[in-house]
Amino acid sequence: GSERCIRDSDWDIAGGGNRPRGGQRGGRGRTPRQPSTTTVPPDRDAVLLERYLGIVLADPQAGFALDRLIELRRTRDGGLEALRADLVRMTQEPARAFAAQMLLGHLAHRSGLREDALRAYEAALTLRPEDSVALVAIGRVMGELGRPEAASFLERAIEHMPSGARRDDLVRELGRLAIGRQDFDAAVRLFERLARGGNAWERTEYARALRDANQHARAADELTRLVGLARGDARATAPLLRDLARAELELGNIDA
Questions:
Q1: Which of 63, 100, 153, 250 has a 20 to 30 Å separation from 218 between CA atoms?
Q2: Per-residue pLDDT at 134
Q3: Within 78-215, where are the H helices?
Q4: Cβ atoms within 10 A of the Cβ of 11, count?
Q5: What whole-number distance in Å separates Cα of residue 70 and Cα of residue 52?
Q6: Residue 202 above 70 pLDDT?
Q7: Which of 197, 196, 158, 198 is nearest to 174 (CA)?
């Protein structure tokens, strides 16, 4: 289960191969066990805390490593004030300042303190003005606060991200936000970035996003356009016609 996965991950983080295993018994011909030494074993939680802190300082994103660091510090310290104080001190260290500001933002955001989170992320951005992690964090918090400039920070983040799934997911998010504010020109531009791969699923992402936003008339228009482009390719046309029929039914065109 998930608890065992976390335990196994912690053993891997803490030092690798000496994971305890039950049911191992001695056998014939085995080398006699050597007398134990007086070496004191390391504090496993202390090792984990150091390793997880190193991970989040190297890549300050709000993921599994941060979850485990928070859980371990809360268990050890009875809360997170000591962790916050440690991070505040690290903001004075040039090599750690950016990551420490980002992590302070994550802690504030998890506590529901969006304005505090935003200030911490903005402080991080002043240290690395083109960092996509900071730009995404600012854009998302601004979106939660209802600020119209949120999208501009997410768009800047895309320009500084390498190609890949994370960038594509952000393009999708921005495209759906554009549909939500009925900026369909921006939405088309964003979804066209995803369609450059050329496969059928990518070409229909804009139509599906329109459908999910209850923009059924626009979805039907987009699907009609795609059917025209795919004419002569039965394999491509069949799912498009099915989706078009569904869009027409949503519009009340019962003859679809």
A1: 153
A2: 96
A3: 81-90, 97-110, 114-127, 132-144, 150-159, 165-180, 184-194, 200-203, 205-212
A4: 16
A5: 10
A6: yes
A7: 158
